Amino acid sequence: MKVLRLYFTVFDEKAFNEVKEYLEKSFGRRNVIVHKSIVVPEFRYLEILNFDKDPEAVKKSIEENFKLKVKVDVVEKIIPSHRR
User: Which residue, 10, 39, 59, 62, is the most exposed by fewest CB within 10 angstroms?
Assistant: First the structure.
């Protein structure tokens, strides 16, 4: 499963929530996950599960609509089966 990760260069709670809502509308609420750092609680990033679009287009859309700088990564996650 491909996952898109969005890292924010500057954390702003209001802007972060607006971006999260925008992504939930675009990709579905169940596919957007917020991760928080244990070491630095202010650091958060978003993951979009089952991602199959162009990551640069999503980045450009967020940077233009919300005036934020984001870094994007696409990673492959392997979901283990629960068969015994």
Answer: 39
